User: Which sequence fits this backbone?
């Protein structure tokens, strides 16, 4: 099925060899090094270790990606660098010609090449457990990220994106790709909550450009001190949307797997609120938005795994945890979730 014209999620990524990637790096950026292919949903990503021991990320955008969308990502990175230069986020560098966007062709595939920073550290998804200190640092970092983008505008900020939670209701046709009837029912319940509670208030919520994908693969922590965020990666899912959606996305990925499954997410929410306060309406919608994000991810991933079986492992990298989290949330009353979110936002969050 096609949910949007020329959906980038429906087509396979471009094909570029390590040798071709290095040739592009040399020709357009004047650099050389040892490449390492990284994961990616739409783009091709190559970490390149340079001779001086530092690394860069060569990103080749999908042939169907729009110039305006790539420029949107670049301008957001530059805006954050200007507004909060100490915030640990990915940076974009100019090519030899002085441009942030470079058009390249490989075997007839027309792509956009960019050179980005690459910070060494430990990807969050590799941690067996996270600490409350780290989760609070994630919340504060995301709040600073969003605060730096207040007032930022770009013609492509409202582009169509399947991962944009404000349009979650359109994902119902994807539920046929979830084979287990119980699990499909949980996802339906999540979408029902979104339509009943969130949609009626959507027009009154604060909107701005948000990161929209603070998942464990997009967060690098300090290898020597895993309580500290070293870098926020991947601007590829950025969109103009309700601000609270960004909090819900980040918190949904920090829900626990056992015991008090809600507390880890509350660490993120409370810390975010301490830096960039959430309104009462935003707080009250978070119970539905947490479930909506999980439902959205599971719907899209189930669909895409059938479309691209060769990339199934990457697509489903977060699915097992998402299923566990969605099932656990279903066992907690909405009133309890709302009350605990309110309490987390009223508490003074320590460093």
Assistant:
């Amino acid at each position: 099925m096609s949910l949007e014209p020329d959906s980038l999620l429906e087509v396979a990524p471009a094909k570029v060899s390590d040798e071709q990637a290095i040739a592009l790096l040399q020709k357009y950026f004047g650099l050389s090094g040892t490449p390492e292919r990284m994961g990616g949903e739409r783009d091709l990503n190559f970490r390149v270790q340079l001779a001086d021991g530092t690394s860069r990320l060569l990103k080749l955008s999908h042939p169907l990606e729009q110039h305006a969308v790539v420029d949107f990502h670049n301008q957001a990175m530059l805006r954050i660098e200007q507004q909060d230069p100490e915030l640990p986020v990915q940076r974009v560098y100019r090519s030899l010609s002085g441009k942030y966007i470079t058009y390249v062709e490989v075997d007839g595939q027309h792509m956009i090449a960019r050179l980005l920073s690459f910070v060494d550290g430990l990807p969050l998804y590799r941690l067996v457990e996270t600490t409350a200190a780290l989760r609070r640092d994630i919340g504060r970092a995301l709040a600073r990220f969003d605060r730096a983008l207040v007032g930022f505008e770009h013609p492509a900020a409202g582009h169509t994106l399947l991962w944009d939670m404000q349009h979650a209701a359109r994902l119902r046709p994807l539920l046929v790709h979830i084979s287990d009837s119980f699990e499909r029912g949980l996802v339906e319940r999540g979408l029902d909550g979104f339509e009943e509670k969130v949609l009626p208030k959507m027009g009154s919520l604060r909107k701005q450009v948000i990161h929209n994908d603070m998942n464990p693969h997009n967060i690098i922590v300090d290898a020597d001190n895993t309580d500290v965020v070293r870098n926020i990666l991947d601007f590829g899912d950025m969109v103009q949307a309700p601000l609270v959606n960004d909090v819900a996305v980040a918190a949904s990925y920090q829900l626990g797997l056992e015991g008090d499954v809600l507390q880890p997410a509350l660490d993120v929410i409370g810390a975010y609120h301490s830096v960039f306060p959430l309104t009462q309406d935003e707080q009250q919608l978070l119970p539905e938005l947490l479930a909506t994000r999980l439902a959205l991810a599971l719907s899209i991933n189930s669909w895409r795994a059938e479309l691209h079986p060769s990339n199934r492992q990457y697509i489903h990298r977060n699915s097992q945890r998402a299923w566990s989290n969605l099932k656990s949330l279903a066992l907690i009353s909405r009133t309890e979730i709302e009350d605990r979110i309110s309490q987390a936002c009223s508490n003074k969050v320590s460093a």
